[in-house]
């Protein structure tokens, strides 16, 4: 539960490829007012960014 998003936020966590660029939502480590994390385990995300290859070899 996020105070700004409510109980069931639209983008609660994961990778959303419907956007350009891709949207990555991390569920985070901390808690808000409610200290229980029911079905929402803490996580740390590692994202590796790579340059897209072009026709010119760049």
Q: Helicity, in percent?
A: under 10%
Mean pLDDT: 77
Q: Tell me what portion of residues adopts beta-strand conformation.
A: 5-15%
Gross geometry: elongated
- Compute the number of helices: 0
Q: What does the largest sheet look like?
A: 2 strands, antiparallel
- Using only C-alpha atoms, the radius of gyration works out to 16 Å
Quote the distance from N terminus to C terminus: 43 Å
Would you identify the regions where 5 or more consecutive residues have pLDDT less than 50? none
Order of strands, widest sheet: 1-2
Blueprint (SSEs and pairs):
Layout: E1 14-16, E2 23-25
Antiparallel strand pairs: 1-2
Description:
By secondary structure, the protein is mostly loops. It has strands spanning about 15, 25. The chain has a domain at about 1-35. Strand 1 and strand 2 (about 25) form a beta hairpin. The radius of gyration is 16 Å and the shape is elongated. The protein starts with 13 loop residues before the first strand and ends in a 33-residue tail after the last strand.
What's this, in brief?
The chain is low in regular secondary structure. Helix content is 0%, strand content 10%.
Provide key terms for this protein.
10% strand, single chain, elongated, 58 residues, 0% helix, little secondary structure
């Amino acid at each position: 539960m996020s105070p700004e998003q409510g109980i069931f936020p639209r983008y609660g966590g994961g990778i959303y490829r419907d956007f350009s660029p891709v949207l990555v939502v991390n569920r985070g480590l901390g808690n808000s007012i409610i200290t229980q994390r029911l079905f929402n385990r803490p996580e740390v995300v590692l994202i590796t960014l790579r340059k897209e290859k072009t026709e010119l070899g760049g």
